[in-house]
Amino acid sequence: MSKLKSQNQNANVKSNIKYRAYYFSLEVIKLAAEFPNERLYWIISDQLLRSATSVGANLVEAKSASSKRDFIKYYEIALKSANETKYWLCLLRDGTKISKDKINKQLQEIEEISKMLGSSLLTLKNKN
């Protein structure tokens, strides 16, 4: 594959919110697998995994929406899940001994995904 074609593919993946949400979920799963086996981490891990994986799941659900209104609703739920994910990642960063670098990397990615969702919602609702 040519270098240009490879760069275009990378750019498409980077701008495709469904792929980004999917790979974000995988990274959060890997992060959670590293947590110590302590009650505190069980609770945060459960909530973090639910909210992080919900983002991509709702984007996939939107694909089979029965109306534009339904489609928008799934995007709104995905955005709410992204915001909840930020909360759990911040708690993890500020209240535990987990590597702040790893958490900040995930926070940066979910922030970008949130911005993409927000922008998409504005477009879908015909607002600028």
Summarize the structure.
By secondary structure, the chain is mostly helical. Helix content is 84%, strand content 0%.
Q: What do you see in this structure?
A:
The protein is elongated. The protein has five helices and no strands. It has a single domain (3-124), classed as 23S rRNA-intervening sequence (de novo design (two linked rop proteins)), CATH 1.20.1440.60. It is mainly alpha-helical.
Describe how the helices and strands are arranged:
Layout: H1 3-15, H2 17-33, H3 39-63, H4 68-95, H5 100-124
CATH fold-level assignment: de novo design (two linked rop proteins)
The ordered string of helix (H) and strand (E) elements is HHHHH
Beta-strand content estimate: under 5%
What is the class in the CATH system?
Mainly Alpha
Q: Roughly how much helix do the residues carry, as a percent range?
A: over 70%
Please tag this protein with its features:
84% helix, mainly alpha, 128 residues, single chain, de novo design (two linked rop proteins)
